[in-house]
């Protein structure tokens, strides 16, 4: 990889189309900010419709080029494995870029980058396993079978919170199966995706198999989602943007896979070990300063232990170290965007107006060195109600609302009373209770006595307005391939 985090400083990053970096025809560049200082550190191209046309044309040409189309399955798998090796070899640089772009902890980004190659290797194994099936037909001397083939050009639009990790579960299988892609990363964190494009070239993928168009959602994103040359969109981001993208895609009847926002319930029964559970709840909501789609931001606690639990939660929250993301001792870094900080402050204020009690946090930290960045203290709003505004909307910041419940029925009704259905967690020592919760909750993922554990070997995704389509596991082979029916009369 030629670009490093240091060499990026103060530069302008071009678009990556057809195997090379090209200046945007739009002529526009926009800054990418460092969340610890609120200062710009490089500029990225803001692609327009002409640039998007070029990227889709390059991906289309690569899809039909014999260099890719006629590559054997096992050779495609080898390329994906080679990419895995290069990601591992460049893990430190990729981690530095993401931390600088989105302010997430360097230790977390390092762990993500080191784990990512395993998932590329897993999906690489799908290259030679895509197979169709033979089906009976009610007539003699006829053969009826389904071929499985790649879709074409897949458009991928990613958020800023874990750009490469969130790309893995779709990019790796798409490449293994033989699709080509156009990626539009978030304008707030493009550095690592452009660096990945360099690694794709270094791995030996033909030019045009992976293209990256950067820029604002309203410009580059809109142009891509209105493009008729895309076979499928994969979107990870907010529910509002997802709905807009699905509407654009529908005009060309392009299917989508949607991984959207959440407002996940975290349920604590009276029979738990309070210390262990508090640690789990804290990690589940405050990880990455609350900027995870699965954040367990609505915490329902059985009335019998409510006061003791809130006290322990507040004490544990008070020990969370807010600080610079490059420091080992830091538990929570800054929020990624200034708009995000304003949104968090607004929701905390509205929660207090609605009658919730500020039990911990609630403001920007005063410590020296944190005054310029977009930092916010981890915040507990106790004695909340599920119908308060801040309990209805995704905050995407370090804020948890705590609500007491008296019965399982009451808790399930509140937990399911949300437009989202991404994830959920339950803490109890009673397996029957845990299983009742698992079967009654409307959420794509249920964690029992743990939270945020995930594996690329299992398929997952959201319910309701948290999205549709599945990532991970063997299901993705069907998500990124199509079936063609062939009938022979012999
Ligand atoms: P966002 O919706 O603001 O932006 C996501 C991407 O969409 C960016 O690349 C952006 O440029 C693009 N975009 C914005 N407007 C567009 C438009 N009109 N047309 C096309 N593209 C457009 O989301 P964000 O703030 O970057 O990320 C945070 C959100 O992502 C949260 O809601 C979070 O829950 C969600 N998320 C979901 C998952 C999941 O797996 N379910 C994972 C991570 C993040």
TrEMBL record:
Pfam families: Aldedh
Organism phylogeny: Bacteria, Pseudomonadati, Pseudomonadota, Alphaproteobacteria, Rhodospirillales
Name the UniProt record assigns to this protein: Aldehyde dehydrogenase (NAD+)
InterPro entries: Ald_DH/histidinol_DH, Ald_DH_C, Ald_DH_CS_CYS, Ald_DH_CS_GLU, Ald_DH_N, Aldehyde_DH_dom
Documented EC number(s): 1.2.1.3
Keyword RNA-binding: no
Domain Aldehyde dehydrogenase, residue spans: 21-486
Enzyme class: oxidoreductase
Active site: 259
CDD domains per the UniProt record, alphabetical: ALDH_DhaS
PROSITE patterns per UniProt: ALDEHYDE_DEHYDR_CYS, ALDEHYDE_DEHYDR_GLU
Family: Belongs to the aldehyde dehydrogenase family.
Keywords: Oxidoreductase
Domain of life: Bacteria
An example molecular function term from Gene Ontology annotations: aldehyde dehydrogenase (NAD+) activity
């Amino acid at each position: 990889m030629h670009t490093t985090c240091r060499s990026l400083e103060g530069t302008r990053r071009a678009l990556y189309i057809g195997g090379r970096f090209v200046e945007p025809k739009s002529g526009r560049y926009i800054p990418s900010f460092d969340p610890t200082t609120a200062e710009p550190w490089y500029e990225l191209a803001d692609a327009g419709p002409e640039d998007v046309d070029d990227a889709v044309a390059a991906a289309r040409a690569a899809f039909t080029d014999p260099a890719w189309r006629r590559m054997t399955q096992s050779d495609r798998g080898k390329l994906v494995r080679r990419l895995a090796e290069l990601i591992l070899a460049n893990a430190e640089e990729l981690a530095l870029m993401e931390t600088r772009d989105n302010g997430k902890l360097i230790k977390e980004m390092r762990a993500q980058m080191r784990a990512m190659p395993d998932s590329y290797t897993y999906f690489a194994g799908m290259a030679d396993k895509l197979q169709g099936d033979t089906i009976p037909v009610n007539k003699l001397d006829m053969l009826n079978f389904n071929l499985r083939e790649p879709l074409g050009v897949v458009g991928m639009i990613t958020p800023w919170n874990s750009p490469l990790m969130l790309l893995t579960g779709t990019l790796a299988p798409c490449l293994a199966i033989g699709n080509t892609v156009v990626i539009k990363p978030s304008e707030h964190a493009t550095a690592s995706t452009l660096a990945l494009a360099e690694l794709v070239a270094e791995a030996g993928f033909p030019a045009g198999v992976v293209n990256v168009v950067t820029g604002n959602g309203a410009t580059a994103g809109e142009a891509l989602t209105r493009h008729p040359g895309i076979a499928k969109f994969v979107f990870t981001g907010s529910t509002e943007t997802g709905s807009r993208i699905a509407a654009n895609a529908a005009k060309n009847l392009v299917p989508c896979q949607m991984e959207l926002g959440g407002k996940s319930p975290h349920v604590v029964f009276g029979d738990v070990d309070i210390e262990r559970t508090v640690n789990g709840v804290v990690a589940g909501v405050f990880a990455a300063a609350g900027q995870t789609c699965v954040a367990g931001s609505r915490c329902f606690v059985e009335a019998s232990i409510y006061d003791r639990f809130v006290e322990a939660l507040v004490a544990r929250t008070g020990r969370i170290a807010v600080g610079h993301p490059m420091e080992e001792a830091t538990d929570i870094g800054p929020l990624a965007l200034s708009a995000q900080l304003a949104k968090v402050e607004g929701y905390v204020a509205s929660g207090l107006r609605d009658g919730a009690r500020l039990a911990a946090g609630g403001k920007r930290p005063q410590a020296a060195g944190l005054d310029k960045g977009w930092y916010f203290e981890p915040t507990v709003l106790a004695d909340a109600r599920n119908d308060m505004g801040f309990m209805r909307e995704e905050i995407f910041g370090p804020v948890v609302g705590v609500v007491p419940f008296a019965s399982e029925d009451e808790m399930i009704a509140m937990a399911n009373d949300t437009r989202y259905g991404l994830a959920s967690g339950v803490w109890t020592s009673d397996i029957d209770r845990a299983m009742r919760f698992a079967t009654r909750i409307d959420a794509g993922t249920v964690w029992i006595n743990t939270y945020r554990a995930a594996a690329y070997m299992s398929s997952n995704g959201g319910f309701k307005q948290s999205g549709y389509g599945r990532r991970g596991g063997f299901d993705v082979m069907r998500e990124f391939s199509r079936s063609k029916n062939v009938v022979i009369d012999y």
